[in-house]
Inverse folding.
């Protein structure tokens, strides 16, 4: 009996030691990869009702996703800005999301590099700083109020970086720039009422502020990036879902590529498809001059422009939304994207080292 009791104690101690060693590894010890379970029964996809999410909207409207997914059910959910979508991803109510580059980085950082992977791009460009008449320079914004869609979203970070670069401070002082957060539709109403003076907004809201609200463009964000290219919208996927259902993720990417290719050859029809989706989602289609102006701001691409992400991570520090730049190595997994591109006879997308830890 004594030997049996001692053996039991030793076994419990050994198990405790193994458990302690596992916990001690913390975030430095990656979770084992989940096994491939074949195509998913259902995939939950998030996106925004914005022209910057045109690839997603076209994929839905023209049935490109449904065609590639086959028997897999596609369930969708729309969002106003990235931080809420990040919460849904990390809470596992979403499997994949079209999302801004800033919140995409935050999702990776919040999950300690484990929760999500960047699998494709979607849109380059499509964001502007628009202001009311009388504001002609950065200095004219002192004491003024600027709206962004949500705290720490892609446009919020871009604005605060630009303010810092122009020696302007975001705050409530008399010479500060007050930054307020409001959903895009509310921003348009606030601007028309005179409650805000400017907005850093994505298309089509920047276009609507100009055409419907009487604003003017002070800055197009493309002017802040080499060759005018920066990832406004990308596609990220929960790491576990990617591991368990790579065929489903590949089908999503193929559907997106089909949408992008179709749009490049059918501009008018692509605009109409986006507008049809926006009417379904918001109850109102865009005026043709608004969608034309918005379309001129964007480029659809499955290339995530991975080389921009280290700078985007640093921008979060400059913008004051992070104390240190989030690590982005290991964020990208372009394996499935490049399989799809190779099958289509297209050049591979460059992960720019983000696929290595």
């Amino acid at each position: 009996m004594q030997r049996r009791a001692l053996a039991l104690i030793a076994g419990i101690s050994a198990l405790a030691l193994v458990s302690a060693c596992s916990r001690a590894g913390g975030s430095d010890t990656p979770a084992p990869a989940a096994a491939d379970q074949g195509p998913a029964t259902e995939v939950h996809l998030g996106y925004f009702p914005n022209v910057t999410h045109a690839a997603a909207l076209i994929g839905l409207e023209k049935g490109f996703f449904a065609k590639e997914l086959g028997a897999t059910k596609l369930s969708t959910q729309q969002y106003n800005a990235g931080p809420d979508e990040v919460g849904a991803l990390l809470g596992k109510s979403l499997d994949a999301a079209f999302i801004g580059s800033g919140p995409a980085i935050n999702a990776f950082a919040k999950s300690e590099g484990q929760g999500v992977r960047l699998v494709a791009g979607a849109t380059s460009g499509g964001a502007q700083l628009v202001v009311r008449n009388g504001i002609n320079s950065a200095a004219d914004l002192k004491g003024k109020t600027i709206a962004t869609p949500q705290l720490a979203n892609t446009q919020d970070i871009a604005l605060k970086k630009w303010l810092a670069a122009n020696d302007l401070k975001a705050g409530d002082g008399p010479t500060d720039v007050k930054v307020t957060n409001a959903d895009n539709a509310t921003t348009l109403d606030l601007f028309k009422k005179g409650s805000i003076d400017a907005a850093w907004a994505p298309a089509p809201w920047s276009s609507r502020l100009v055409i419907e609200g009487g604003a003017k463009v002070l800055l197009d964000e493309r002017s802040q990036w080499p060759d005018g290219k920066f990832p406004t919208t990308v596609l990220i996927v929960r790491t576990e879902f990617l591991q368990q259902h790579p065929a489903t993720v590949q089908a999503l990417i193929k559907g997106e590529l089909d949408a992008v290719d179709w749009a490049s050859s059918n501009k008018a029809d692509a605009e109409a498809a986006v507008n049809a989706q926006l009417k379904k989602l918001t109850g109102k289609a865009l005026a043709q001059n608004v969608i034309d102006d918005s379309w001129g701001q964007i480029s659809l691409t499955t290339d995530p422009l991975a080389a921009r992400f280290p700078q985007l991570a640093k921008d979060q520090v400059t913008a004051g939304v992070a104390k240190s730049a989030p690590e982005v190595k290991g964020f990208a997994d372009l394996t499935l994207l490049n399989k799809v591109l190779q099958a289509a006879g297209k050049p591979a997308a460059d992960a720019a080292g983000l696929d290595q830890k």
About this structure: The chain has two domains: 42-125+229-343, 127-227. The chain has a mean pLDDT of 91. The first helix runs from residue 2 to 25. Residues 127-227 form a domain with the D-Maltodextrin-Binding Protein; domain 2 fold (CATH 3.40.190.10).
